[in-house]
């Protein structure tokens, strides 16, 4: 093989390596969490994709559909709620598909890692409104009385 071809192949192979393998923290980046929020394998609130929940209290989210990954869903009771004084296990992922005029407007999500929540709110076009870096905005509301592991939805629905 010619040296130029060997260099070209080496560059292509090096550029195709997964960055997550080099930096496992990327699996918890805002973009990775957004990919998880967009995933279709989550289970809907009360296992019913037709349920649209209306904003309650002083929620900034508007109407939404609530989804959970299998880890979070297993922690919920038959009423689709986390029991009072319960906590979600690590690996739990909750996402609100926030709607405007019945259409998806944005994702608001929570992912539990090492006993703490990672937060994000991002428009469907990928523009982030809130990320882990400014999560104090999220926790200031989610920390209100009656929350269940910082999830306020169960106070109203």
Calculate Rg over CA atoms.
Answer: 19 Å
Q: Helices and strands: which structural class?
A: alpha+beta
Residues in β-strands, percent = 15-25%
| Sheet with the most strands, sense and barrel status | 6 strands, antiparallel
So how many helices?
6
- Report the CATH topology name: Chalcone isomerase
CATH class: Alpha Beta
- In the residues, how many domains can be counted? 1
Count of strand segments:
6
The average pLDDT value, as a whole number, equals 81
Distance between the first and last residues' Cα: 67 Å
Tell me the overall shape: globular
Helix content: 25-40%
Descriptive overview:
This protein is of the alpha+beta class and 157 residues long. The protein is 27% helix and 24% strand. The chain has helices at residues 3-15, 19-22, 30-38, 70-75, 136-142, 153-156; strands spanning 43-44, 64-68, 93-100, 103-113, 116-123, 128-130. It has a six-stranded antiparallel sheet with strand order 1-2-3-4-5-6. The longest helix is centred in the N-terminal third of the chain and has 13 residues, at 3-15. It is globular and about 40 Å long. It starts with a helix and ends with a helix. Residues 7-17 have low confidence and may be disordered.
Notable features of this structure?
alpha+beta, 27% helix, six-stranded antiparallel sheet, globular, Chalcone isomerase, 157 residues, 6 strands
Task: Set out the fold topology.
Blueprint: H1 3-15, H2 19-22, H3 30-38, E1 43-44, E2 64-68, H4 70-75, E3 93-100, E4 103-113, E5 116-123, E6 128-130, H5 136-142, H6 153-156
Antiparallel strand pairs: 1-2, 2-3, 3-4, 4-5, 5-6
């Amino acid at each position: 093989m010619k040296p130029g071809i060997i260099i070209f192949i080496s560059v292509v192979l090096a550029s195709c390596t997964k960055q997550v393998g080099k930096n496992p923290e990327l699996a918890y980046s805002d973009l990775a969490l957004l990919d998880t929020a967009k995933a279709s394998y989550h289970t809907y609130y009360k296992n019913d994709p037709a349920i649209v929940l209306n904003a309650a209290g002083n929620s900034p989210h508007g109407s939404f559909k609530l989804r959970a990954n299998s880890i979070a869903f297993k922690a919920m009771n038959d009423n689709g709620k986390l029991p009072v004084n319960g906590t979600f296990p690590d690996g739990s992922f909750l996402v609100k598909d926030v709607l405007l005029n019945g259409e998806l407007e944005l994702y608001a999500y929570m992912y539990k890692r090492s006993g703490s929540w990672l937060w994000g709110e991002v428009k469907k076009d990928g523009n982030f409104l809130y990320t882990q870096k400014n999560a104090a905005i999220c926790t200031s509301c989610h920390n209100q009385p009656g929350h269940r592991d910082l999830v306020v939805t169960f106070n109203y629905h």
